[in-house]
Structure formats: C-alpha cells, structure tokens
Amino acid sequence: MPQTKTKDACLYELEGDQTGASLTPAEFEHQALSVSEPTSETIFPTPSSSGDEIKTLGYANHAMGTQNIIHLVGSQISQGELYGTKTSCQSEHTLRQYTSIIRELPSRRHIDILVQAFFENVAWHYDIVDKPTFTDQLLQWRRLTHVQLKQAPASLPDNLRPFPALLFQVLAQSLLFQPTDYDECLDDLKYAADMELSDRAAEYSDAGCRLAALFGKSDLSITILQAELLRACFEKTIGEVIEAWHTLGIAIRSAQELGLHRTEPTGSPADHDLGHKVWLILHLWDAHMAIVLGRPMSTRLSPNAVPLPVSWGSGLSALQEPQPRDVILCGYHTAYQFLQDIYVLRDIEDCRPLVEDIHHLLLLNIKSLPAWAVTERPRQGEPPWLSAALETMQTEVYFVIFALHRPFIFAEPSSRRRAFDAALQILESQARLFDQAPPSQYKSFTFVFATFDAMVLLAAVHIQFKREFLGEFPATRKNLEWGLERLNHLRSTSKLANSAFNVVRELFQKVLVAALPVDSYCHVGISENGDSEIDNLTAVEAEILQAFWSDSVQTGLGNVLPPQPLSSLLSNASSHTS
C-alpha cells in the first residue's frame, strides 16, 4: 500500500495565510474572454425562493453559516442542484448570442469523427470527461427539435444548456491531435486555402469560451467546469501557459462554488463521483503549475479523501485492463500527493528532516507500485494509450523527487545528487515516451516541461560542480544531446519546444566549455562528411561549440540556473509571438 505523510481528514479549503497570495478573484476575472466570466448579457436567474435570495447575497452552504441558521429556524431553502441551477429569464440579446454560437457546431458526421478521436487519443491524458455521461448528453442534444434550438437556451433542459460549451472544447482538443493520415472529410471544416486543422481548433475553443461566458456564477455546472478545464488544456497545449494558469484559477473557483471541495456527498452518487474526479484533476494541475511555474497554490487535498485505484496490488493477468482513472490514482498515491508538501517547504525554517521523510516515503511507494504499473512489466497486448500513460506517470513520479530536492542543489550535496539522479530518470523516461508516441501526440506539453526542467538542472550542476560530477559527464552529455534532438524535432509543432531548445542549447554550450579541455574547443571544426575533427566530440557538440566560441559568449557561469527555469522558456515563447 502507498505511504502518506499525514493522516488529515480533509484539507480542501484554502489555507488562511495563503489566500492573499494565491489566485484572487481579481486575478481570476483578469481575462477579457474568460470561460466563466459573466458578460453584461449573462443568463441571470430570477430569485424565486429564500434559497435563491441567499444565493444572490453570496452565501455558501456551510454548517455554521447564516444560510444554515435560516434553514434551522424553518425557512425552506432550496439547496439547488450540485451540477446546475435553473434559470428563468434571459435577455433577448443573450438568446441571440446563444443560438448564434451553437450554429457554429459542425455537421453530425464531423462531430462523430472528432468525438471518437477525442476518446481514443486525448481523453486518457486527464480523464476530465466521462465518456458515458458525455455520450448520453450528446444523444439528448441530437433529440432536440428545431423549435427548441431556435428558442434556446430557455427551451432546453437544464443539463443541456451548457453542453455545447463542453462539446466545442472536445472538438478543439480532437482537432489538435489528429494523425497525419486523418479522415479527409475533416478538410471540409477549413474555409480558407491556408487553414490548418489547428486554426479550426482555436475557433471551436473560442466558441466554447464565448458560450460558457453567457452563464453567470450562479449558473455554474459540472459541464461548465469541464469546459473550463479543457480550455486550460487547450491553452497549455498551444503554448499559452500563463493564460492556462488563469483559466485554471477560474475553474478552481467554479469548483469551489459548486462545492466539489467538500467531502460529504451531495447530489447523486454518480454526480458526486464525477465531481470528485474533476476536483482531483484541478488539485493536481494547481500543484504542478505551482511547482513548475512558481505560481501560488490555492488548493490542498487530503490523501485519505482520494480512493486507491481499483486494481491496486493486482497483476495484469488477474485484472481487467486498467483505466485512465487507475493510472492517475496510482500516480497520486505514489508521488503526486507530496507536491503540496513540497510547495510549502520554503516556509519551513529547517525543512531537512521533512525532505528526508518525504524522500523515504517516495522510494517506498515506488517499490510498492502494482505489477501493471512498473517499468519492467509484460507489455504484450497492452494498448498504446496505457503504455504512454504509464510512461508519463513514471516521468511525473520522478519529477516529484526532482522537485523535492531541486531547491537545495547548491546547499546540500545529498539533495544535489538526488535531484541529478531524478533528472536522468526523467530524461530516460521522456526518451522512451517519445519513441513510442505517434506524431499526432507531438503537440502535447508532456514532452516539453519535464524535459526542460531536467536538462536545465543537469547543465547547472555540471557547470557549477564539474569536478563532483565528472564521472557522470558521459551520461549527461548523452541525455542532453537526446533531449535537444527531441526538442528540435518538436519545434515545428510546439512554440514551447522551440523556446526550450534555444535556452537549453545555450546552457549546453556552457556545459561543454566547463567540462572539456580548452584545446578541445578552441580549434574545433567539422569535416566535409559532417564528422567532428575532435574524436571525443559529436558533430552536434562541435557545431554548438564552434558557434559558442565565434560569438565570444564565454562569460561567467556562476548564475546560469534561474530561480524558475520555465520563466526563461515562457518569456522566450512570448517574444516569439509578439
């Protein structure tokens, strides 16, 4: 069984001292076109009961709150449905906006192709959309009459009003990850000669955004929340990482408004389970972006509130095929649960005992992985998505060890060594993942973030502690070269990969200068057949060193590691698009 650090019953709420520094409502409403930002034409409900009046005042359901007191003294308060609230009036302009947006949906044939591709190629990444629920909603949507659609959204059932917002985001994600031999009928979606499927994907995602914005904060639903999360996925995939972080913040507030952060069941068991699944993904994104990007973290989650995967402890022979949910839960209980603890280490004066404790628990959990999740496992008959999901989990598990020790690499030799070893594991895992991935997956940010952070750290320790890591230089050189080759291959499809390549290439120049004798790079050249004239240099290294030396960039190497490596990547990405 996996080990946890604490036995807290529930830590979902924002920590008091972090609220001010975390995502504030002002920050959440920063974007002009937010996925749940109400416009002047928002669909507003008309208060029809004490419960609606209390909701208008902004009170949340709480055992010790004013709303509960009113309930206790006998007033009937409608708690509302967890995953949707009824609306009773809409402005004429809003009605026109809604019907105008849903007319942008493609034909049934195109929708069927894209939805099928979404659940085959994309959905497993985060398990945000429940396939049976989505399929049922799609079938209900198709049963709507022409009259109902003309009078939408007032004429629609509550659960279907926000559905097109989610459908647009599903279509957008599917279009981003189409294979090179995609169904030619999808070309019908292009209306200009130079259009790409990714251009249509952006338009569908924006349409989903506009539609979701018609629903006010009091009209939130789990469907709107799923659409917000997929919008964040879309933004992150196309390299708009800062925008994705803001969208994530909006989704977190929406989820809290719906009560998804509470442990007590609300609504039907199926609804509660779906809400809990979405809240877990929100928390993981929040924690990961806090650690990777250095952003504030606004959620906490008790490991005791997260179920174990159904198949934990079972071998593949005694088990029905693991589902995406199982892989996510396995990764959480093995390592991801500690991200929130790693985030607060900076606030602890002497955190070394806690670092050692977490490191020990991580190693125990890795040793306790179920048979179907270990790297050395029978893979005969294993579906491609499962192989990719488990390899991604391996990357992320070692990223947690990496993140645990990275803040201390200049002060603690033991942390320096452990972070270095974890970085090598990350890059080797990323190489395996890239080797098995079809080109349709190259747009995924999975191939950039972990690779970039790990390569920056390897370069930094060899520059700053070259004697200490002299024996590891061959492994470092190999992994940096492979990483650069992967990033170079991805540059045409990912602006993040392009920026990461430029940053790491510059660091690799400094690594070679620091690690190799001066004579190796002062007179380096490349022969006519492309081979290096120096036996111990590859053509790639020779080319890098030649550029390095000719540009006279041999400067001090004392500050090559920025406090947050991704800040360089993101600033470069922004400059390339400006």
List keywords for this structure.
578 residues, mainly alpha, globular, XnlR_reg_dom, zinc ion binding, nucleus, Sec_Metabolite_Reg
Descriptive report:
There is one protein chain. The protein is an all-alpha fold and 578 residues long. Among the domains are: 31-41 and 90-303, no CATH class; 46-84, no CATH class; 448-578, no CATH class. Helices cover 54% and strands 0% of the residues. The longest helix is centred in the middle third of the chain and has 25 residues, at 269-293. It is globular. It starts with 24 loop residues before the first helix and ends with a helix.
In short:
The chain has helices at 25-28, 50-57, 66-72, 92-102, 108-121, 131-142, 146-150, 163-176, 197-212, 222-237, 241-258, 269-293, 324-334, 339-343, 352-367, 384-405, 413-436, 449-464, 473-490, 495-515, 518-522, 539-550, 565-577.
Task: Describe the secondary structure blueprint for this structure.
Layout: H1 25-28, H2 50-57, H3 66-72, H4 92-102, H5 108-121, H6 131-142, H7 146-150, H8 163-176, H9 197-212, H10 222-237, H11 241-258, H12 269-293, H13 324-334, H14 339-343, H15 352-367, H16 384-405, H17 413-436, H18 449-464, H19 473-490, H20 495-515, H21 518-522, H22 539-550, H23 565-577
Helix pairs in contact: 4-9, 5-8, 8-9, 8-10, 9-10, 10-11, 10-12, 11-12, 13-16, 15-16, 16-17, 17-18, 17-19, 18-19, 18-20, 19-20, 20-22, 20-23
